[in-house]
Structures are given as C-alpha cells and as structure tokens.
Amino acid sequence: MAPDPSTYSFSRVTTFEQCARRFRYRYLDGVQEGFQGVEGFMGTQVHSALEWMFQQRDGGNRPTLEQSVAYYCDEWDRRIADGSAPVRVVKTGTPMETYRRNGAEMLSRYYRERFLSDRLTTVANEHHFRVTVGERHKFQGFIDRLATDKDGLLHIIDYKTGSRVPKKFEGKEAQQLEAYAMAMFREGQAEEVELVLDFLKTGARLRRRVLRAQADEIEVRLSARIDTAEEATVFPPTPGVLCGWCGYNDLCESAMSRYSRAS
Predict the structure, then answer these.
(1) Quick one: CA torsion of 131, 24, 40, 123, rounded to 10 degrees?
(2) Cystine design at 111: which of 32, 115, 124, 231 (Cβ 3.0–4.6 Å)?
(3) DSSP string of 141-200, one letter each residue
(4) Distance CA 183, CA 224 (A)
C-alpha cells in the first residue's frame, strides 16, 4: 500500500531533495525497496536496543551492559531470520558480522559513557507526533527520546550511528531536530527545548537551545520545502555514489546504466 500522499515526514522531504526518482518510487508509487543497506539496518537495531534499555530502567529494572548487548544481538538475529526486508552489504570487503560488532560496540560505549550517568526523566521513547504546517500540510515524525532535566527543560534527543560528525549544529540533522522542536511547540509541550544530536560511534554531542518564538520561522521554511515536493510534476534521478545503497537501483535506469558502465 502506498504511503498517505498527504502526510510528510522530514525523511520524505529530504528524499525528494536528494533524489526525486526515489521519492516517486517510495512515496507516490508505493514500491517496496528491494533491500535495506546494512548500515541502516544496524542503526535500526541500535535504536531498538536503546529504547529497550530506557524502558527497562524507567520500569525499575536497570539492565546490565551484557543484557543490553544481548538484546541488540537477539534483535539483529531475529530480523535477519525473518527475511521480510533483505539486508545487503554494499561496501565490498566488509563482512556483515563487522557491522553487527560495530553496533554492539556503539551500544557498549553509550552504556558506559551516557546511560549509567543519565539523570534525565524520560517522557517518551519513539514519540510519534502529527501536526499541521503551512495551514494545510500534515507533518509527522518519531522522536528517539523525549526527556526532561531537573529544571523541567524538555530535551529532544536523536541518536546517530553514522561516522560523519558535523563541526557545528547544522545541516539536515539539525534541521530535522528543529522541525521536531516546532512540532513540540505546536503540541504545547514547552516554551523552550534543548536539541541534542548524540553521535554513538564517537561519543560526540551537539546541542542547540530553541525557543517557542522561533517556531513560526522554522514552520515557514519547512512548509516551503514541502510545497516544492508537492508541486513537482517530474521526478528525475540523481545518479551518484549513493545509488549503490538505494533499494530501487534495480528499477532506475540511471543506476542500471551506472553499474553496467562500471562492469
């Protein structure tokens, strides 16, 4: 079934901006991707384990490091065995087990450096929101973790499992969290929020404080980006190195032409 064409997420917007053809396949035609890259698969399992860890802790059962890694490994094995979304290693020379181990190492680092010392109160894990932007667009998303500190300040926390760490709080990761902050203001959750990008591979953290007064400006920018995607009538591909990780590269003539030349 095709996704609801009237509802946008931040990933839907950025997919259009990165490759309009992929946007069309996924969001307009409702075509299921032929595979998932192992990097994204690993990130999903790490996120699942982090959610489980905080749920356990908030329920009064603080998990050990060994239990947390075991949960991650069990989820990895279960998802691979279920086979509903084939997982592909695109980067040659790197076995899947390396990615499995990398995810476990990220989780272990987070447990030692963040989880044990965390004093925030969790409001929700994978918080789902749906708001209206630009008076006519439905916008939804899932926030990795919503939490408050001892002063009642709301924190919007997003976990990143990739290798790249921006030098400053900017780029699409920052824009995504700003859009999430706008949504929390629209829900009436707070007057100001702390945005936190948590890079699990390196342990780096980037932060920015956003005030309710900035919500209108954020909404205008997001609404304009949605307008551009919604008004598009042609959806050309954007061939490049990322084609290898695209689950539609068996359908797209640009990707097929790229690989046929390479071979």
Answers:
(1) 10
(2) 115
(3) EEEEEEEE-TT--EEEEEEE-SS---SSS-SHHHHHHHHHHHHHHHTT--SEEEEEEEET
(4) 16
Residue 25 burial by Cβ neighbours in a 10 Å radius (0-12, 13-18, 19+): buried
Q: What is the pTM of this model?
A: 0.92
Tokens representing 47 are 């996120």
Which one-letter DSSP state was computed for residue 1?
-
Contact, 195 vs 146, CB < 8 A? no
Domains and CATH numbers, the chain: 8-32+233-263 (no CATH), 34-118 (no CATH), 121-227 (3.90.320.10)
User: pLDDT tens for residues 140-182?
Assistant: 999 999 999 999 999 999 999 998 999 999 999 999 999 999 9
Distance CA 11, CA 39 (A): 16
Give the integer Cα–Cα distance in Å for 29 and 252.
13
If one counts every other C-beta atom within 10 angstroms of the C-beta of residue 75, the result is 17
Q: Which tokens belong to 244?
A: 């290898």
Helices (H), 187-238: 215-230
Tokens 């917007």 sit on residue: 13
